[in-house]
Amino acid sequence: MNNCILVTGGAGFIGSNFVLDWLARSQESVINLDKLSYAGNLENLASLQDDSRHIFVQGDIGDTALVERLLATRQPRAVVNFAAESHVDRSIHGPEAFVQNNIVGTFRLLESVRAYWAGLEDKTKSGFRFLHVSTDEVYGSLSKEEPAFTEHHPHEPNSPYSASKAASDHLVRAWHHTYGLPVLTTNCSNNYGPYHFPEKLIPLVIVNALAGKSLPVYGDGQQIRDWLYVSDHCSAIRRVLEAGRIGETYNVGGWNEQANLSIVQTICGLLDQLRPRADGQPYRNQIAFVADRPGHDRRYAIDARKIERELGWKPAETFESGIAKTVQWYLGHQEWVANVQSGAYRDWVRTQYGNAEAGNAASAS
Ligand code: NAD
Ligand code: DAU
């Protein structure tokens, strides 16, 4: 077996942070399979263009022939599955892509991986892992008084996105119980940090504020999320991959519940200090309350004691340190933002390399 792992969805927000973190800490290569939907951005991985340990393959986790070929030729010792449609609002407008990518895609990936794993020699077979990256949204919504989600909380998904992720979690679980596939699942809270696509609350607010646009807050802005800096999510996944018990799920969270309005106000305050408006007015003047998201979950909260107790993981960043780094990152990466907004990021490979295949990018065949 080669010294490599297969990462799916590694050109998206969390996946690209994971690949960058992984290669900063390990000599083990990464095969990065990503279909490059609107959310996939190879510019996130530009620093790896001369790094032979990163092999990018553009393709779909649901393309069985491609995935089987990749597994057979690269022989990864693990698969980490980030690939998914991830935005709740998009799932409300167009749920089919979520069913296709998140449910059917995960099903096909599981089948390809099962066939590969079944054919491994005993020693490599026992070391193999399939880690499925999931979300706290599968657990549904909490009232203010209820305790945080543990791993035993029933799945009660409320949006097409969370329903599709819950379905994929169930498939992963069943592939372990029925076929013995050595799976691990992580259910994480809201991430934020570098390379976050500016359709999501935190990057949207930073980008809109700087552009003088309104900062849309859904409903009363009192919905609560538990925010985790993305590199902490990456370290949790590495730790679960390393030492997680097969068949188990691990909740990952930041112990940082905040109402959306408070998040928006914190960002406004940081921008007031770091990049004051030309007219001297505070950025909070740009806040606009808009229509609520249909079916909007009121509160998510993660009880992350299991991963701390069993695997010794806890977040390294506080929200104060993480959000300050994040705002600074966006201020320092205005070109990345401009390329996303103009759509130029989709041509990045061609612009950078003059043809469709990037440095270490490989075509599937
Ligand atoms: P993202 O939308 O930024 O990136 C998803 C990536 O997956 C994109 O690069 C896209 O091109 C790729 N992709 C989508 N469908 C694919 C397919 N069928 N085949 C191959 N590639 C495909 O998402 P993200 O925020 O980085 O989330 C990554 C994973 O983590 C998702 O599974 C999501 O459910 C989960 N998650 C996200 C958060 C969060 O706060 N963003 C929190 C917990 C869990
Ligand atoms: O909890 C984990 C989940 O977090 C992940 O599984 C999802 O992939 C990820 O997108 C995220 O989902 P949310 O719906 O919580 O994230 P989003 O950034 O879209 O919204 C955060 C909160 O802010 C939510 O309550 C909706 C609200 N919101 C969002 C946007 C985009 C606004 O008030 N205004 C906005 O413009």
Description:
The structure is a single chain. The chain is of the alpha/beta class. It has 2 domains: 4-192 and 226-252, Rossmann fold; 201-224 and 257-295 and 318-360, UDP-galactose 4-epimerase, domain 1 (Alpha-Beta Complex), CATH 3.90.25. The chain is built from 13 helices and 13 strands. An 8-stranded parallel β-sheet has the order 10-6-5-4-1-2-3-13, sandwiched between helices. The longest helix has 23 residues, at 96-118. The chain is globular and about 65 Å long. Bound molecules: nicotinamide-adenine-dinucleotide and 2'deoxy-thymidine-5'-diphospho-alpha-D-glucose (DAU). 2'deoxy-thymidine-5'-diphospho-alpha-D-glucose (DAU) binds at residues 86-88, 135-137, 189-190, 200-201, 204, 216-218, 223, 225, 260, 293, 300.
Features:
365 residues, alpha/beta, Rossmann fold, UDP-galactose 4-epimerase, domain 1, eight-stranded parallel beta sheet, three-stranded mixed beta sheet, 42% helix, globular, disordered C terminus, binds nicotinamide-adenine-dinucleotide, binds 2'deoxy-thymidine-5'-diphospho-alpha-D-glucose
